Amino acid sequence: MATHSYTSRRELEQHSFPPAVALLVPLAAIVLQALLPKPFPKLAILDLPLIIAVFFAVSRRNPVSGTLTAAAIGLLQDALTNQPIGVNGMAKSVIGYVAASIGIQVDVENMTTRLVMNFGFSILNSILLFLINHRLLGQPGAQILWVHELIRAAVNTLVALPIFMLLDHTKRLD
Amino acid sequence: MESFFTRFKNVLVLVAVLLAQTIALAIQVRRPVESGAPDGNKVTLIRYWVVAAVTPFERFFLGFGRNVRGGWSNYVDLRHTRQQNHDLQNEIAQLRLEQAALAEDAMQGHRLQALLDFQHHYVATTVAAQVIGTSGTDLSRVLYIDKGSKDGLKPDQAVITPDGIVGKLRDVFPHTAQVLLINDQTSGAGVLLATTRIRGILRGSATGHIQINNLTPDSRIKPGEQALTSGGDQVFPRGLKVGTIESIAPDPDHQPYTLITLRPAANLFQLEEVLIITGTQSELPEQTKKDLAIGAVTAEQQAEAARIAAAEAAAKSAAQIVADRLPSLHDPDNPDADTANSTDPTAPKPIGGIVPKPQPTLHPDRYSPGSAPPATSLTPGAPHSTEAIPRNNVEDDTSNQPSSTTNPPSAAPKKTPKTATPQTQPQTQPKTESQPN
After folding, report:
1. Alpha-carbon gap: B23 to the closest alpha carbon of chain A (Å)
2. ipTM of this complex
3. Does the pLDDT at position B32 exceed 80?
4. Could you tell me which residues are beta bridge partners of residue A172?
5. Which of A56, B195, B324, B394 is most buried (most C-beta within 10 Å)?
């Protein structure tokens, strides 16, 4: 009788997704992100691609996969802006790596963990974008507006929770 | 060695990804980099792929939304249409009046510009486009429109709405184009303050405001002043609305400059349709010339009508004042006499209204009006002739008045002064008659 021995949470709860979901969900997030601020300008504060990148990273629990998926999402996001391509790509690569690494260590199915994690990653994303723009690209107007970023993080967290619950249904246990 | 890569595989992948993107950034960000400039060919190609993948969805959702809205507004929500039509017609009438008022100034300004040989670029051709999407982030304020190079669009063309300027085209693809809004951090435009004629450079801020930050404090600049495009940036034609000054504050980062924040004339946060200026010309377009000519004619007609009305009102008011001050002009015993005289259409109307004539005195003496000889007829050193009252003067005065100004017999019974004071003819009388007029 074959026996399984799990040595880590990663081996215990490593999920995968159908290719259609893995491809279409990030694309849908980018399209929605581009569409929503047109009728509702305030929704530009949202970062749906970030939420999706975090979700795939923590669900797969694979830093390589998380880094590459998040980098791809960030690069697609950059292509729609007037910024140099790579700004969001770099920030989200780091977040994908960190999120996947955290996913190995802690229980990311827990609601409180998800709440804290999304809030933290949103703030981290803002800090990384500021550092890239200010230090790497030397943009003089780059600044970090803390109140705005805290509101952004709170809004993203609130939106992320139902999205995570919705996408949980598409998971496949490896 | 193999164990090293296996062990640090995750970190190495991250470092490799970051390194690749850093190199890509370094290639894209060349110095000196022009703010808001379009990308190089390779970057444009990457953007083109992504935009080509995303815009079909945006077009689909835009079309779907438009159809739903159109179905609702064209078939269901037709209430109050008649009232709206009436209101719009009133608005058109009002706008025509405003156009007439402005047309004369515009024509005059155009003539003066021609005299000064001033090269002004007027909007000649525009392309209307629908906004189909955004960049999706508030760090990059760009829009996507449904027209591209196939419709004659090129990078750096100005994008406007009837309310004011919006931005300029950045990357142009075959069927879509990217609009860099004026409130983006990398955006800039030359502006002119409308009343003070001070020139400045408009820039976007991180918070999405538009600001002028290259001016030193000036007490003439006040909130509420309008800013127009100066034409100096070679993108926006001169004289388009930019916005209104909202606040003026010292710039904490760049002393002693001020930070002038403007409220954009166009609603940059909710744009549906925009116009792209594809061509300018140094002369006014034909249609505009016709409109101005019509406006000028209307303005002249209005001015003429206003002049006539003012003259009538002045005459009426003068007559009214005189009538109020001299109630004897109105004969209470014969009120019809005034009416008969005033309504005579053949009677010539003196300019400035009717001047009342004093009634003849019943018992004239040397103080009576007209009894004193004119100063020109007096001779220095001549004998005192104050008693020589020219009795016929009074009679002449009364007889020489036009019929419309004479008082009716009943109102002022004429007395013959000749019989009252039989005096000799004054010696100066012939001299007076011989005086040239």
Report:
1. 9
2. 0.84
3. no
4. A16
5. A56
Distance between terminal CA atoms of chain A? 20
The DSSP line for B98-128 is HHHHHHHHHHHHHHHHHHTT---PEEEEEEE
Q: Which of A75, A80, A90 sits opposite B54 (nearest CB)?
A: A80
Q: How far apart are CA B52 and CA A84, in angstroms?
A: 18
Instruction: List chain B domain ranges.
Output: 41-74+119-284, 89-116+292-330
Which one of B6, B46, B139 makes the best mutation probe of the A interface by having the most chain A beta carbons within 10 Å? B139
Instruction: Decide if pLDDT at B396 tops 60.
Output: no
3-class secondary structure, A113: helix
CA-based end-to-end distance of chain B: 129
Residue A12's pLDDT is 56
pLDDT at residue B390, as a whole number: 46
| A143/B207 Cα distance (integer angstroms) | 10
Helix axis angle, B41-71 to A63-79, nearest 10°: 70
Chain B residues in contact with A73 (beta carbon < 8 A): none
Contact (Cβ atoms closer than 8 angstroms) between residue B358 and residue B352: no
Three-state secondary structure call for residue A172 = strand
Q: How far is A90 from chain B (nearest CA, A)?
A: 6
Q: What is the rounded CA–CA span in Å between residue A127 and residue A31?
A: 24
Which pLDDT value is given to residue A55?
94
| Structure tokens belonging to residue A97 | 């790596």
Check A79 against B46: CB less than 8 A apart.
yes
Residue numbers of chain A with a pLDDT score lower than 50: 1-5
**What domains can be seen in chain A, in order of their start residue?**
15-169 (1.10.1760)
Closest Cα in chain A, distance from residue B39 (Å): 9
CATH assignment of B41-74+119-284? Answer: 2.40.10.340
Q: Which residue, B142, B160, B244, is CA-closest to B194?
A: B244
pLDDT over 90 at B312, yes or no: no
- C-alpha separations of B273 from A44, B144, B145, B242 in Å: 19, 11, 9, 17
Contact predicate B216/B239, CB 8 Å: no
Residue in chain A closest to B185 (alpha carbons) equals A141
Tell me the β-bridge partners of B248. B260
Q: Which two tokens stand for residue A50?
A: 């970030």
DSSP label of B380: T
CA separation for the pair B430, B115 (Å, rounded): 62
Taking an 8 Å cut-off on Cβ atoms, the answer to whether A129 and B14 are in contact is no
E strands, A8-147, in order: 15-16
